[in-house]
Amino acid sequence: MEQTVSLLDAIAPAAGEPGREMFDPATGELVGVAPLHGLAELEAGVAAAQAAQPAWAAAGHAARSAALNAAADAVEASAEELARILSREQGKPLNGPNARFEVGACAAWLRSAAATPLEPETVVDDGTTKAVLHYRPIGIVGAIGPWNWPMMITVWQIAPALRMGNAAIVKPSGYTPLSVLALIRVINTALPEGLLSVVAGNRTVGSALAEHPAIGKVMFTGSTATGKAIIRSSAETVKRLTLELGGNDAGIVLPDADPKAIAEGVFWGAFINTGQTCAALKRLYVHADIYDAVCDALTDYAKNVPMGLGLDEQNVLGPLQNASQYGIVKDLVEAAKASGARVLLGGNPDENQPGHFYPTTLVADIDNTNPLVAEEQFGPALPIVKYTDVEEAVAMANALEVGLGASVWATDRDKAREVAARLEAGTVWINAHGLVDPRIPFGGAKQSGYGLEFGVEGLKHLGQPQVING
C-alpha cells in the first residue's frame, strides 16, 4: 500500500496548484487528488514535444523499440500499484478481465508495437521505374482517451505513435485522470524527457489539443458525438485522425448453436468491464428454436458471477464508473420493463447501498425498437431479441448507424462466416465477442469511426506515407 500512496503523491498537484478530488465509484471514498491542467500546461507540453521529437525520430526503429520494451518492463515492475489505483478510481475489480488484466495489456501492447516489423514497400520496380513507399513520423500526436479502459486504450494510442518516431500528448478523461497520470509517469522512466506528456484538463483543453496547429494527428476513443466535435475542431489544420467511436454491437445466435456451450462466451462478450466497453456485445439476437434454452443457459451462468468492491479478490464485476452512466442504464432498463419486456435476472438496483452498482441484468421478450436495444446502454444490461429467419436477424443487426463490432454464434463455422460477411461492422467474431489482439487490425464501420489500430496497419496510421519514385 505504501507504494500506491507514494505514486499517488508523486502525481498530485504541488501545494497551491489547482487540483480535483477523485472518488472511488464503489465506495465514494477519496482516492487521490489529480492536477487540473489548463492551456498553459498544454502549450508547455507542445513545446517540450517539439524539442524532443526530432532526436527521437532520428534514433530509428531499433532504438525506439528498445525504449518501448524498457517501458513495458517498468509497467510490469509497477503492475500491482497501477492496478490498485485503476481499481479504486475506475471501479473495476483487480481480478478477472479487469484491473490486473488491463495493466498487463499495457505491457503487452508496448511490446507488440516494438516488435511489429514495418519495412519500406517497393510498389513498382519494372526496370524503368522504382517506387518505394515509406512511413515517416508525423510529428506530435494528441491522444484523447476514455474512462472505461483508461490505461490500456492510452497505450493503444501512444505505443504506435512513439514507435513511429512521434512525440505524444495525452488528454485523459476527467473521470479517470489518476490512472493515466500514474501510467505515464511509469512509462516516462524509459523515455527521453519531454517526449510524452499528460495534460489532465477539462473539455476546453481537449478542444484546444484537437485544434492546435503543432499537433499533426489526433487519436480519440469515446462517443460518436465527441468524435464529430473533434472532426470539426481538426478541420482548420487538416489533422490526421483515428477515431474509435461508440458502438451498439450485435450478436446473432444461429439455430445450430449449443446454448450451454456458448453461455460463458456470450456473457463475457457482453459484461466484460461490467458492460462498459465500446466493443461489448450490447444486443443479442437468438433464433426461436433455441431462444428459451439460450436464455436459461445465460441466466444460469450470469447469476453466479460475483459483483462488488474492486479490491475484494473474489469479485469480477464492479460498479458503473460514474453516476451519469448509472442513470442511463437504470432509465433504459426501466423503460424496457414498462414496455412489457421480461426480466430474467437483475433490473432491481439497491438504491440504499453505496456506489454506482447496477446488478447484472438480462432482459428477454423485448422489441427490437425498444431503447434498450436501439441505444447503447454501456452497462450491465443485455437485451435478448427473438428472431425466426436469419435474413431478419442480419437486417436488425445492420439497422443502426454504428458498426464497431459484431459476432455470430454457431456450431457450423462455415455458415457463421457466411453470415458474418454480411454484417456491417469493423470486426465480426465467430463464437466470441470483443477479443482484441495487438497483431490484428481493429477499427469501426459507419459512425463507429475510421482509421485502424494494432499490428502493422496500426503503425502505418501513425506515420506519414511518403513515396520515393525514381
Automatic annotation (TrEMBL):
Cited Gene3D superfamilies: Aldehyde Dehydrogenase, Chain A, domain 1, Aldehyde Dehydrogenase, Chain A, domain 2
InterPro entries in the record: Ald_DH/histidinol_DH, Ald_DH_C, Ald_DH_CS_CYS, Ald_DH_CS_GLU, Ald_DH_N, Aldehyde_DH_dom, LUC3-like
A Pfam family annotated for this UniProt entry: Aldedh
Aldehyde dehydrogenase domain segment(s): 20-465
Domain of life of the native organism: Bacteria
Keyword RNA-binding: no
Catalytic residues of the enzyme: E244
Keyword Oxidoreductase annotated: yes
Keyword set, alphabetical order: Oxidoreductase
SUPFAM superfamilies: ALDH-like
PANTHER family, alphabetized: ALDEHYDE DEHYDROGENASE-RELATED
Protein family according to the UniProt entry: Belongs to the aldehyde dehydrogenase family.
Protein name: Aldehyde dehydrogenase family protein
